[in-house]
Write a structure and sequence with these properties.
Blueprint: E1 2-8, H1 14-23, E2 28-30, H2 31-37, H3 44-53, H4 66-73, H5 77-104, E3 109-113, E4 128-133, H6 136-145, H7 150-158, H8 163-169, E5 172-175, H9 180-191, E6 206-208
Parallel strand pairs: 1-3, 1-4, 2-3, 4-5, 5-6
């Protein structure tokens, strides 16, 4: 089985790409969803987060106060690294377990959506990598539409590699600007490259934008 790591800047279209792949029968595991699951009430990760960051990050309902935790970790690098030490090993264990299950089922290919793919060295676990990108103006507009402030946007962008660095490291780059059908067309070229076996066989760096 061939495994592809899909990454990109925040707000640049990773989720849209993952959804398109899922609709076209490519198994996809999104680590953002795993990150939410591991901090559900009663999970060890949530208990450790409370111990490290204090009771103020837990609401009266016992659930994680995500905005409060984000305020802490995105304003202080040391705090963000502490959170990553808690969550990243658990997230990696889960996505690798899912990939192992797909491999046992003899699936031909699978995609793992990992925002910090290169930052965490997870690309070493993959046969190929895709970076989803868009213009900085579009990225900021999308994040503003989520209700984030300009300061919150800058903090989150600063917590990741510059998109140019991600693009340079990826085997494939797709441009998620405008019509979603265009994004799908680019992904389709990766899934079914002319003259090659589907998805990742004979991988060469390619810019599809």
């Amino acid at each position: 089985m061939k495994v592809c790591g899909l990454t990109g800047g925040i707000g640049m279209g990773k989720s849209a790409a993952g959804q398109w792949l899922s609709r076209h029968e490519v198994p996809v595991v999104d680590t953002d969803l795993l990150a939410r699951d591991i901090v559900e009430p009663g999970r060890p990760a949530l208990q450790e987060i409370q111990r490290v960051f204090g009771p103020g990050v837990i609401g009266a309902d016992g659930r994680l106060r995500r905005e409060e935790l984000a305020r802490i970790v995105f304003s202080d690098t040391a705090s963000r690294l502490k959170l990553e030490d808690i969550t990243h090993p658990r997230i990696r264990e889960r996505w690798k377990s899912q990939v192992d299950r797909w491999r046992a089922e003899q699936r031909p290919r699978a995609v793992v959506v990992i925002p910090l793919l290169f930052e965490t060295g997870a690309e070493r676990e993959c046969d190929a990598t895709i970076c989803v990108a868009c213009s900085a103006a579009t990225q900021r507009r999308r994040l503003l539409e989520r209700g984030w402030t300009a300061d919150e946007i800058e903090q989150r962008i600063a917590a990741q590699w510059p998109i140019e660095k991600k693009m340079a490291r990826a085997d494939f780059v797709v441009w998620a600007e405008g019509d979603p059908d265009i994004l799908g067309m680019q992904l389709s070229r990766i899934l079914h490259p002319p003259g090659l076996a589907p998805l990742f066989s004979g991988v060469v760096s390619e810019r599809l934008c």
